[in-house]
């Protein structure tokens, strides 16, 4: 694997200084990507936080997108569907890529973040929305040479005075102080970590790469497309790379949002999926030449309106949910998940149906390998700290939550000896 193995990352503390200077009064809507136009919970909360359909003034920053005008118009139309007049949703012309669907060359907008007129436009807004695409474009444009542009300062001022800052996909990745720029769970667990200035091509074996983000979310590292792209492993490694800094990570599923209230330091899981909280505060990393070995990682999963209090690190389940701990429904001994033929292959289903709502087992095991001999055993278990919750919140669709599930990761070697008959 032709990948450097050392992380040389100097993270900027500018957002931390801003946070200390003035506690933000606003909210964050951090969407994990693939936001459906029909996602009422996310859109309606965003509009409400922006002042309602009549008072909302939304500025859209399309910098990450390869089609900035096309996807701005789609978002503008989505907000109009929920009652916000199109004239109240404006495009901020900062882009890196030319949108081939228009006659104008939008790539000429790439230096516009220094324009004081655009910063003044944000000062009149109640909300800012970052489109998805490539998060590196956003950081490079809004923090040229590592310093805040006038436009970025204006976004911070909006957040501090009580406005809402939202974004999807790449627009979610930039929210934390440490930004995940690239990488897969496999390469991260196998300890393929690139320095922040390495040029990384978008391939399936790209290394984990961390950069400085925009720092609106102070509680830990954000990751997005968390469920479909199986970014669970890479977020664990990204959090572990923080050293003495933050020991928390937050993975946001597609078509889902982490809605954060800066004033109270609480967040809510909205949308069709949920939010995974990764807690390494009590975890122990063990040196192993094969890859990441770690004990006592703690996981929590929120969905369907569950809330989480960052002050106490407590899960606050939806009031309609009932506790499954001590009254588990399932009875499945020795649950093991190894691939697409296994039941409950999604992380949220595996740790709830096979563990927190399963009286037949106190641990559930999953294996990750790529057919090259290296394997990772993931042992999920429950103890006195672990809690589960469940309810039907939408017809007969299960809506489960889990709190403080333990995870141990051990790398090893495996030999697969297939014997096909002809």
Automatic annotation (TrEMBL):
CDD domains xrefs: GAT1_cyanophycinase (cd03145)
Would the keyword Membrane turn up in this protein's UniProt record?
no
The record ties this protein, via SUPFAM superfamilies, to:
Class I glutamine amidotransferase-like
What is the E.C. number?
3.4.15.6
Catalytic activity annotated for this protein? Answer: [L-4-(L-arginin-2-N-yl)aspartate](n) + H2O = [L-4-(L-arginin-2-N-yl)aspartate](n-1) + L-4-(L-arginin-2-N-yl)aspartate
**Source domain of life:** Bacteria
Q: Which Pfam families match?
A: Peptidase_S51
Alphabetically, the GO molecular function entries are:
carboxypeptidase activity; peptidyl-dipeptidase activity; serine-type peptidase activity
Give the UniProt keywords, A-Z.
Carboxypeptidase, Hydrolase, Protease, Serine protease, Signal
Q: Which InterPro entries match?
A: Class_I_gatase-like, Peptidase_S51, Peptidase_S51_cyanophycinase
Q: Which residues form the signal peptide?
A: 1-20
Claim: NADP is one of the keywords in the record: no
Q: Which GO terms describe its biological process?
A: proteolysis
Top EC class of this enzyme: hydrolase
Q: What function does the entry list?
A: Exopeptidase that catalyzes the hydrolytic cleavage of multi-L-arginyl-poly-L-aspartic acid (cyanophycin; a water-insoluble reserve polymer) into aspartate-arginine dipeptides.
Q: Which family does it belong to?
A: Belongs to the peptidase S51 family.
Q: What is this protein called?
A: Cyanophycinase
């Amino acid at each position: 694997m032709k990948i450097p193995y050392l992380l040389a990352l100097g993270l900027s503390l500018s957002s931390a200084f801003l946070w200390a200077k003035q506690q933000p009064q606003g909210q964050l809507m951090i969407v994990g990507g693939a936001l459906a136009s029909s996602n009422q919970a996310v859109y309606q909360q965003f509009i409400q936080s922006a002042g309602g359909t009549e008072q909302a003034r939304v500025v859209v920053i399309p910098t990450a997108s390869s089609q900035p005008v096309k996807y701005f118009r789609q978002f503008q139309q989505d907000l109009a569907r929920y009652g916000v007049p199109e004239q109240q949703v404006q495009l901020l012309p900062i882009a890196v890529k030319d949108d081939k669907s228009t006659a104008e060359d939008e790539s000429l907008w790439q230096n516009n973040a220094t324009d004081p007129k655009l910063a003044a436009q944000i000062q009149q807004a109640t909300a800012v929305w970052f489109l998805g695409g490539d998060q590196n474009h956003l950081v490079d444009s809004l923090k040229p040479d590592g310093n805040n542009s006038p436009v970025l300062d204006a976004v911070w001022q909006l957040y501090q005075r009580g406005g809402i800052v939202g974004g999807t996909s790449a627009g979610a990745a930039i929210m934390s102080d440490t930004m995940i720029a690239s990488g897969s769970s496999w390469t991260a667990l196998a300890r393929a970590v690139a320095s922040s200035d390495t040029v990384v091509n978008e391939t399936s074996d790209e290394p984990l790469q961390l950069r400085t983000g925009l720092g609106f979310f102070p509680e830990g590292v954000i990751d997005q497309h968390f469920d479909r792209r199986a970014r669970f492993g890479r977020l664990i490694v990204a959090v572990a790379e923080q050293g003495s800094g933050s020991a928390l990570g937050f993975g946001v599923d597609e078509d889902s949002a982490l809605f954060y209230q800066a004033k109270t330091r609480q967040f809510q899981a909205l949308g069709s999926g949920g939010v995974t909280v990764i807690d390494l505060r009590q975890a122990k990393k063990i040196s192993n030449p094969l890859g990441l070995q770690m004990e006592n990682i703690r996981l929590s999963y929120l969905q369907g309106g569950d809330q989480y209090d960052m002050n106490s690190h407590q899960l606050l389940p939806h009031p309609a949910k009932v506790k499954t701990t001590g009254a588990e429904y399932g009875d499945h001994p020795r649950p093991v998940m190894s691939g697409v033929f296994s039941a409950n292959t999604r992380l949220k289903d595996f740790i709830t149906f096979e563990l927190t709502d399963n009286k037949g087992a106190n641990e559930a095991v999953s294996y990750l390998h790529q057919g090259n001999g290296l394997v990772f055993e993931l042992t999920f278990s429950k103890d006195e700290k672990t809690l589960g919750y469940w309810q039907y919140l939408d017809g007969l669709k299960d809506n489960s939550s889990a709190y403080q599930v333990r995870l141990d990761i051990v790398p090893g070697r495996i030999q697969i000896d297939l014997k096909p008959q002809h």
